[in-house]
Amino acid sequence: MASKGSSMSFSRKSYRLTSDAEKSRVTGIVQEKLLNDYLHRIFSSPEHAPAAATSRKPLNFQNLPEHLDQLLHVDNEDEESQGQVEGRLGPSTVVLDHTGGFEGLLLVDDDLLGVIGHSNFGTIRSTTCVYKGKWVYEVLISSQGLMQIGWCTINCRFNQEEGVGDTHNSYAYDGNRVRKWNVTTTNYGKAWAAGDIVSCLIDLDDGTLSFCLNGVSLGTAFENLSRGLGMAYFPAISLSFKESVAFNFGSRPLRYPVAGYRPLQDPPRADLVRAQKLLGCFRAVLSVELDPVEGRLVEKDSSEWQLQGQPTVLLTLAHIFHRFAPLLGRGRRPPPHQCPPLVQRKVYLVEAVLMSFLRGVVEAGTPAQAQSMVRQILDLLWLFMEDYEVQDCLKQLMMSLLRLYRFSPIVPDLSLQIHYLRLTIAILRHEKSRKFLLSNVLFDVLRSVVFFYIKSPLRVEEAGLQELIPTTWWPHRSSREGKDSKDVKDETAEEHRRRRAYERGCQRLKKRIEVVEELQVQILKLLLNNKDDNGGEASRYIFLTKFRKFLQENASGRGNMPMLCPPEYMVCFLHRLISALRYYWDEYKASNPRASFSEEAYVPPQVFYNGKVDYFDLQRLGGLLSHLRKTLKDDLASKANILIDPLELQAATMDDLDEDEEPAPAAAQRPMQALAMGGVLPLPRPSWLSSPTLGRANRFLSTAAVSLMTPRRPLTTSEKVKVRTLSAEQRTREDIEGSHWNEGLLLGRPPEEPEQPLTENSLLEVLDGAVMMYNLSVHQQLGKMVGVSDDVNEYAVALRDTEDKLRRCPKRRKDILAELTKSQKVFSEKLDHLSRRLAWVHATVYSQEKMLDIYWLLRVCLRTVEHGDRTGSLFAFMPEFYLSVAINSYSALKNYFGPVHSMEELPGYEETLTRLAAILAKHFADTRIVGTDIRDSLMQALASYVCYPHSLRAVERIPEEQRIAMVRSLLAPYEQRPWAQTNWILVRLWRGCGFGYRYTRLPHLLKTKPEDANLPSLQKPCPSTLLQQHMADLLREGPDVAPSFLNSVLNQLNWAFSEFIGMIQEIQQAAERLERNFVDSRQLKVCATCFDLSVSLLRVLEMTITLVPEIFLDWARPTSEMLLRRLAQLLNQVLNRVTAERNLFDRVVTLRLPGLESVDHYPILVAVTGILVRLLVHGPASGTERATSVLLADPCFQLRSICYLLGQPEPPAPGTVPPAPDRKRFSLQSWPRWV
């Protein structure tokens, strides 16, 4: 029999006449008696004892089909009885009733078993109901949001507000709110999580209804159900927007069958019996070996079986698979949409028979034995089954594997996840199967990223974390001064013991999780294999095409939301991908000494402009790609020897002119289908979903790559390469890796780049994709997971406060003591639970290894930006997300991984800080960067950078010319640019040096409301005298620098303070109305922002006067007098508004409105005082006289303002009542600690 694609081959031998024994040894042909014994041993009926050898009918390959027909015969009554069951009404194949008027409210999968909420609260029921007996169905929870799952009758009417359980004769369990519903609601059950399975049981004999969660009964939920004539119950669900589940009515084996309860859909019993009998025959082949020399059968361990090409064994297997194949795979010419019964039957058989058998193989032997056995089984499938049968079988097998992995409960040793991953690895080690799955299934039909995810247990007791981490620990104190505070006492001996025990438990958990992570990395190593190109494309290049489409779907953000990869999956996928990528990178380095180590990795700049890699519609630093190609085409030609085809430029221009977004109604009317569970996407997939931009599907620039028309000789420096575009699917290995005279992805190398390759070009594209993944959703998820640590801190504070109250409470108040003791117990139990969950989160998300991955990604981005910057104008082609990832990954390392792991412990920490500082300092005002968002991000990152001592010192370590250029950009006039962030940066360089400006918390809050002192979170002052000196030198440098800068600051101060006064007038009027209207919180926020801006602008003026007083006081300068008069005018206006008795400012401050906590006399008056002190006290004598005369000559000057600052009462006007002597007044003398 010829092999149709097996990875092994059987050679044809020349047979000659010899003795029987020698003939058997050479050809494998066995004697008739031995063949008869062998076939009877393989195809014996399990229901009957083996007959004596003398009474058995002789078996050979001629009469074997007849014997198999008898062996596989199933009574017709068993086949015909399916669907005709008392107590059940409706089709025998149970699916969701998508014709029941719910089309606009829900998205239903093609197999009519998965559903996704697409409205406020949509409801759907099944096509089959029950009125008698005991029945069960399962729901696979894909998201843990608001859903109500249960049963309803046909008379129940639902809407967008009322769903299952909100009407009579409908009953539901809600694991999100942990309640049960039947018109009214009460507490019931446990909270569910994504990956859980809910079993819904109804007993219509006793009239009860109950639920199970992951096989554990939650108890009887409802009793005395209405029964009788016309009462039949449908499975039903109501779910809110974006929530998703998948139903199993019996189309697959129930994960948690319940004794006495029957699934709504009967299994395919006849086919199941046949498949199990054939599997038994196959098992017999594995456990029996022919010995033609001795003429006997030899029993052996099936795990040691080897396919050796014996004709007798091959013919026997051919007969088995001839009957087995139709049960597992589809027909030769299936209809476009196979009928649900046929599809569901094959799904059931693959999961119940083949999957169970393969699981047994993996669980019984060692990993090496299991992989060998699975490989041989797949060889047999490809050998004896038609290709389309094997492909359909493999697809169903991987779908079952993913579903089983995703919905497996977390057990202490993670054995279930380990077995499923080992089976996945064994299947993917088979080259032909791997390539088929990678090309057609893993990214097209399945959400295969699920294989790289380790779900977090919501219920730690079920995950066995109590046994693994018996001792819990959490921080018992928090610092009021933030993370940098060192004012903490040493822990007690008991705390030290508990912390060490907790850390040992965390290490035990981490080691178990690392086993799963290593298996996941092995899967990716198989998918990234580029040595398996025998007779076809290597796996890595298939993976690259699918991986790019995966990134495209998630980057567009305009596709079908359920299609997008959840952020928690993306985090795990990124870490596994980095591990596999670095493995192959360093492996290539070992065989190519001129290449670089993965520690030196970066993406060369030509990747961004030669068009070989598709960046979809992601923004470039210099704007749209079409614009850059037109404006920088001369630079591309001169620096990179690249010519853009004029016809393509013209086509791109016309496309941009004609491009219109798709109208919303048209988009809403398109057919939308998505599968809710297991990440399986609909089949066949709608073609419109393949477009990442939907309304821009035909856009020229969304094609994947620019490919060089390969020249026949090496290019000289004067020759240019004309390029054309290719789609991602059209790319070949040569387009990526290159060939003779073709650099592949590295086409268009600028002269600044080294000639020797970093690594294989394909790995550069994987690296680029990893950076993009971090930008898409990984950073967001890292910040979200910090919430568990925040919860621990909040409960720890609450527990500590409760314990303090217990110590202070009088013993005679037993009622209070009882309540406090109860609260203490609740907080302790919650902390025990959260501390164990935190251990899981630290092991899976915030471990030292994960931190090193993010740090490596940060350094990759830094090198990439540095190399891109050297290309001059071509730097504009770099996608914005490289700078975003550099900024965000540093933020994540600094804020998310502590306090367990510190960024300061990372290798090369100081150097990395300095390199990032140089990038921020150079590019925050880079004219090559035009995007508003990325410019704001750079400005905010620099502002944050100069707040902390370590990063500020890094800014001071960058080359002097870069520091001066940065300060020069900061001193540019404030008009026509976002000046607020620039001003904050200057203020932070000064804070700690100004008058009364040494505080870390606003002093007026520490006095009036100490418990709210942490609201405005300010860092410890860390001024930079070096950068201040650069600022002073630049202001003295030219005649126009200082006037233009200071005039813009004074203009903005005038605007900000005027806006602030106008807003507090509106706030005061609203507060004085009789109806007591609430003030808009947004208005309060804007008002506080204007106040803070006014204070910060005053501080910048104070810094300028301190550093360069001659700008205002040396009247030999042509602009000094004018600047001084403007400054005096603004200072008098501020003082008059703030210091007047019972004025508007005073009344608003007294209101203490939420959101206006920072608005007080102290911040603004101390800033004004700092300027006056520098002008009138600490300046040179001649300058002091000039400043005094200008201040007194200003028409707005009022002496009472100076008296107010000093705490002296204002003399009452004639005919007015003097103020009360005990009235509290502002005075600088009241703040000796700060002034």
From TrEMBL:
Chain segments carrying region Disordered: 476-497
Keywords: Metal-binding, Transferase, Ubl conjugation pathway, Zinc, Zinc-finger
Protein name: RING-type E3 ubiquitin transferase
Record bears the keyword Zinc-finger: yes
Gene3D superfamilies assigned to the protein according to its UniProt record, in alphabetical order: 2.60.120.920
Source organism, top-level taxon: Eukaryota
Compositional bias segments (type: Basic and acidic residues): 478-497
InterPro entries linked to this entry: B30.2/SPRY, B30.2/SPRY_sf, ConA-like_dom_sf, RNF123/RKP/RSPRY1, SPRY_dom, SPRY_RNF123, TPR_RNF123/RKP
Record-linked Pfam families: SPRY (PF00622), TPR_RNF123 (PF25576)
